[in-house]
């Protein structure tokens, strides 16, 4: 087993999943403001300290994705976040993309940036204790979107990122997110997700990315939030697994879903229903952001008397997801 394969398996096996706590400074600040907390480097640090020091988190979480700011910050006891995670048996991951920007000639579509200097940044993060990385591409549905050029540009960037990570010793989480925004049907999401994943695996192959050393982080197949469709949990689970069976090679060790704006409970139910669809060639787990940390942030609201209750809220979501694996 290669070192990359071993890390990838650790990320996705057992009952554990991955916690995405890597919101950019802008996104994190907006989420803090929404719950009445003044966004500063210190409040962002304290909030992340609350998350990672949740008791027994390592029982349900194998890895935590951090943003660059957090990666360089310290806990109250003086340990850096990656040092602390290593001490408690959780892998430290790093988001290395620099965000999705308007695609030239198609401002309603996005291209994720961050390839410049990535080889050197990967080396720095490895030195500081990272074992895996994340890059998120976003694909929009609506009107003529997604265009072929948006899909190709995004999977090309994902494949180049994945190659650079593997060369430097990090397992890349490869995240092509088909967004839930819009009024498209579940069928349209299925069609677009299938096309994106097919194109992605062609490109990963072209770039000689070792599939046994990645973790795929896709969206579930769901209708757009404005569609009015309310599919059953079983219908979402079945559509998602059918798409993955059609497109994801069996050499990929694991698939860790994003939650994408689904409610925490629904995301967990969908994950649980997929596990019941019989033997699958890859591990299926969670790499949720909002569906794991949303209730904790709402509970904390910057008030330290809510600290333990907020940690309990995170713990409950993580255990609920571990329980359906
Ligand atoms: P959500 O689960 O909130 O979609 O976040 C996952 C993630 O890491 C997005 O890049």
Our measurement of the CA-to-CA distance between the termini, rounded to an integer number of angstroms, reads 24 Å
The top level CATH class name? Alpha Beta
Specify the oligomeric state. Answer: single chain
- What is the overall silhouette? globular
Radius of gyration: 18 Å
Order of helices and strands: HEHHEHHEEEHEHEHEHEHEHH
Beta fraction of the residues? 15-25%
Q: What is the count of structural domains?
A: 1
Estimated helix fraction: 40-55%
CATH topology: TIM Barrel
Q: What is the overall number of helices? A: 12
- Unreliable residue runs: none
CATH superfamily label: Aldolase class I
The largest sheet, given as strand count, sense and whether it forms a barrel, is: 8 strands, parallel
Mean pLDDT: 98
Give the helix/strand class: alpha/beta
CATH architectural designation:
Alpha-Beta Barrel
Structure description:
Helix 10 runs antiparallel to helix 11. The chain is globular, with a radius of gyration of 18 Å. Helix 10 links the parallel strand 9 and strand 10. It has a single domain, classed as TIM Barrel. The protein is built from twelve helices and ten strands. Helices cover 46% and strands 16% of the residues. The strands form two sheets. The protein has an eight-stranded parallel sheet with strand order 1-2-3-6-7-8-9-10. It has a two-stranded antiparallel sheet with strand order 4-5. The two termini are 24 Å apart. With 325 residues, the chain is α/β, with parallel strands linked by helices. The site of 1,3-dihydroxyacetonephosphate has 10 residues, from helix 11.
């Amino acid at each position: 087993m290669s070192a990359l394969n071993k890390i990838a398996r650790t990320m996705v096996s057992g009952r554990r999943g991955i916690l995405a706590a890597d919101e950019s400074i802008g996104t994190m600040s907006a989420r803090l403001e929404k719950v009445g907390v003044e966004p500063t480097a210190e409040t962002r640090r304290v909030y992340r300290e609350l998350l990672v020091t949740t008791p027994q988190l390592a029982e349900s979480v194998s890895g935590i994705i951090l943003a660059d700011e957090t990666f360089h910050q310290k806990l109250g006891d003086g340990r850096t976040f990656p040092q602390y995670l290593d001490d408690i048996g959780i892998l430290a991951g790093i988001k290395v993309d620099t965000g999705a920007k308007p695609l030239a000639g198609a401002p309603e579509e996005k291209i994720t940036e961050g390839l410049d200097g990535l080889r050197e940044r990967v080396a720095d993060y490895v030195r500081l204790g990272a074992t895996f990385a994340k890059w998120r591409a976003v694909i929009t549905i609506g009107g003529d979107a997604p265009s072929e050029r948006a899909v190709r540009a995004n999977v090309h960037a994902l494949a180049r990122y994945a190659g650079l990570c593997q060369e430097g010793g990090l397992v890349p989480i490869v995240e092509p997110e088909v967004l839930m925004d819009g009024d498209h049907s579940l069928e349209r999401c299925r069609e677009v997700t299938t096309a994106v994943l097919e194109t992605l695996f062609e490109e990963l192959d072209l770039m000689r990315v070792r599939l046994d050393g990645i973790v795929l982080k896709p969206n579930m197949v769901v209708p757009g939030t404005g569609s009015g469709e309310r599919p059953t949990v079983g219908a979402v689970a079945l559509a998602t697994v059918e798409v993955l069976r059609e497109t994801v090679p069996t050499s990929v060790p694991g698939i860790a879903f994003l939650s994408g704006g689904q409610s925490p409970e629904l995301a967990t139910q969908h994950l649980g229903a997929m596990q019941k669809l019989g033997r699958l060639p890859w591990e299926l787990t969670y790499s949720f952001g909002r569906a794991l940390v949303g209730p904790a942030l709402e509970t904390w609201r910057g008030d330290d008397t809510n600290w333990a209750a907020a940690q309990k809220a995170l713990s409950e979501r993580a255990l609920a997801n571990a329980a359906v694996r």
